[in-house]
Amino acid sequence: MNFALSFKPPSAGRSGPGGGGGATMENLEKQLICPVCLEMFSKPVVILPCQHNLCRKCANDIFQSANPLWHSRGSSGIAASGGRFRCPSCRHEAVLDRHGVYGLQRNLLVENIIDIYRQQETSRLVNMKPEQQQQQQQLMCEEHEEEKINIYCLSCQTPTCSMCKVFGQHKDCDVAPLSSVYMRQKTDLSDGIAILVASNDHIQAVISQMEEMCRTVEENGQRQREQLESHFHGLVAILEERKQELVGLISKQQDNKLKHVRSLIRRHGDHLEAAVTLVESAIQSMEELHMPLFIQSAKVILEKMAVTAGASDMERPELSYQSMSHFVIDTDDLADMLRNMDFCSGVGDDGEKDPEEVGGESELDFGSRY
Prior knowledge:
Order of helices and strands: HEEHEEHHEEHEHHH
Shape: rod-shaped
Strand content: 5-15%
Distance between the termini: 84 Å
Largest sheet: 3 strands, antiparallel
Number of strands: 7
Helix content: 40-55%
Structural class: mainly alpha
Mean pLDDT: 78
Strand order of the largest sheet: 6-5-7
């Protein structure tokens, strides 16, 4: 390399009372660079909800690329609606109203700072000596200190001066005017930036679509979970209702059997009480000493005994009467069916075939297989 890649202003330009001011202005300039065009903000400057700033033109370009269906301000047709805008600095996403970026607030403070900065830079350049301005604007050859860098060596791919071409190490090389190479490479770089920005916009649009897809998947999953819970609650309600019906049948027959057996118990109890009374009467009659009286009372007692003996063979329930084993329900098949319950394949709620159901089960529509 035979040139210095930095300007050569006199040392006095950065020393003394004004030395710190130049560094301060340089630092200030870095804060006034738009993150999209990488140039100083061009008015109007808009401030985003995340407090970052952009040229309104750059913000509008980003907004238009992310919302291609949004109508620009002043266009005829359907009234414009809002759209999404993602900050290129912090990636924060904001939803703009129907005015788009034209509805964002202007950052008048930044615009005023830009005006002051440009006034200071203009004043500084005006106050510079002509030699300083020349050195500020031109790169000088290190080997030929009086020669400006004004040509480009195509063979070595480096800028150089005319003396290096005539007498120096580039005399056998192919060269071209520095300005033409500068313009060509600047054009190529500008085209590359445009292509890269367009690619970034496309990637950002794809990311936005996939983020929207994630939100849709979450919403669909939540809706299907709610439907699944509703189906199972319905099944539980059906089982509970049927259980109450079957329990009612068991309770009804149990009550009928208990009522019948208890009525028999009362009848047998009454018969037993009458027989006990008759036995007591017979024992008292056995103590009668007068034969005529004994014969009369014994005859009556014997007649009653005959009647009581005949009534002792009363109705009684069979041994299997207490069994309730006929109330049996077979739930094995139903339990297997419930265990094998799965999502049914076919179409979803929107009538379209499930895209994930390709030789497999649908994950969107629920139904029990009976």
